[in-house]
């Protein structure tokens, strides 16, 4: 059951913030939804947006400027929180890149994280909840995200090809098995066995593909002034994996742009139009 926390008129539609008791997580979880005016007469295509480290369900809706374009295209926007809240796992607030605000969109298998840190299962639960409770067409759903959420968007799209018709990302953690953020998260949530990590590494998942999973293409934007680019993000690894798999990829590199929402908002319209073209075809 959804609990409506707040509601705001926005570009002719409605911006809402919800809470529900998650069976997958075992705790209350929050998410936000923008519903354009078109929903008064039809079930609409939708986009899930997965935010990055330290963000919440509010960050994207406040900072990205996406509602203007979603209203124009008639797309529902859904932004989940980035981790469980209130799990009270020892150490979950000790660092900004692991634990609270850093769920990495996977199901932890290691204690004590495995009880509540089940973000992939929650996304499945949330997808079903959205289809039951909101005016969303389940056959026309895309996914995109930023940084940790870009990692999540790519891996969710590759692990659950039947859930999504389109995928894009801003500055994703494209090869988490080979960067400090990913190694820290994967070791804590999944354990030391790197064989388990590959199932949640977008570059490794793409390299396994026998044919292009998204023949209409994947879009990635990356700022070249991003301080995390060299050490953490590794878009070139995903680019090479796509080449091997025959997956069409548009990877745009932008001089002068950093990792934040000034960068994201600059290219948000392109991503909304990119998904709209695939979801409405």
Low-pLDDT parts are none
Please count the helical segments: 10
Which structural category do the helix and sheet elements fall into?
alpha/beta
Major beta-sheet overview: 9 strands, mixed
In helices, the fraction of residues equals: 25-40%
* Extended strand count: 9
Please name the defining characteristics of this protein.
single chain; 281 residues; alpha/beta; nine-stranded mixed sheet; 10 helices; 9 strands; 34% helix; globular
What is this structure's SSE topology?
Blueprint: E1 3-10, E2 13-21, E3 28-35, E4 44-50, H1 59-63, H2 67-73, E5 76-80, H3 119-133, E6 136-146, H4 148-159, E7 166-170, H5 180-190, H6 194-197, H7 202-207, E8 218-223, H8 229-233, H9 235-245, E9 249-254, H10 261-279
Parallel strand pairs: 4-5, 4-6, 6-7, 7-8, 8-9
Antiparallel strand pairs: 1-2, 2-3, 3-5
Account of the protein in words:
Helices cover 34% and strands 23% of the residues. It is α/β, with parallel strands linked by helices. Strands 1-2-3-5-4-6-7-8-9 form a nine-stranded mixed beta sheet, with helices on both faces. Strand 1 (3-10) and strand 2 (13-21) form a beta hairpin. It is globular and about 50 Å long. 49% of the residues are buried.
Short summary of the structure?
The protein is an alpha/beta fold and 281 residues long. It has ten helices and nine strands. It has a nine-stranded mixed β-sheet with strand order 1-2-3-5-4-6-7-8-9, sandwiched between helices.
């Amino acid at each position: 059951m959804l609990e409506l926390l707040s509601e705001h008129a926005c570009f002719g539609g409605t911006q809402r913030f919800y809470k529900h008791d998650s069976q997958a997580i075992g705790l209350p979880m929050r998410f936000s939804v923008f519903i354009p005016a078109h929903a008064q007469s039809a079930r609409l295509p939708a986009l899930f947006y997965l935010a990055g480290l330290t963000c919440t369900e509010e960050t994207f809706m406040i900072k990205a400027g996406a509602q203007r374009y979603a209203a124009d295209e008639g797309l529902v926007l859904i932004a989940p929180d980035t981790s469980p809240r209130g799990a009270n796992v020892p150490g979950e607030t000790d660092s900004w890149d692991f634990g609270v605000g850093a769920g990495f969109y996977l199901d932890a298998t290691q204690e004590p994280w495995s009880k509540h840190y089940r973000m992939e299962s929650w996304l499945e639960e949330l997808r079903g909840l959205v289809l039951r409770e909101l005016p969303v067409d389940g056959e026309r759903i895309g996914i995109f995200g930023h940084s940790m959420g870009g990692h999540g968007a790519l891996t969710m799209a590759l692990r659950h090809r039947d859930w999504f018709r389109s995928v894009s990302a801003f500055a994703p953690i494209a090869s988490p098995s080979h960067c400090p953020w990913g190694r820290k998260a994967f070791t804590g949530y999944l354990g030391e066995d790197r064989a388990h990590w590959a199932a949640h590494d977008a570059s490794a998942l793409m390299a396994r593909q026998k044919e292009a999973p998204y023949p209409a293409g994947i879009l990635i934007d990356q700022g070249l002034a991003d301080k995390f680019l060299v050490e953490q993000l590794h878009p070139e690894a995903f680019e090479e994996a796509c080449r091997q798999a025959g997956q069409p990829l548009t990877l745009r590199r932008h001089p002068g742009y950093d990792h934040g929402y000034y960068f994201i908002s600059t290219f948000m319209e392109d991503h909304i139009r990119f998904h709209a073209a695939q979801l409405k075809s």
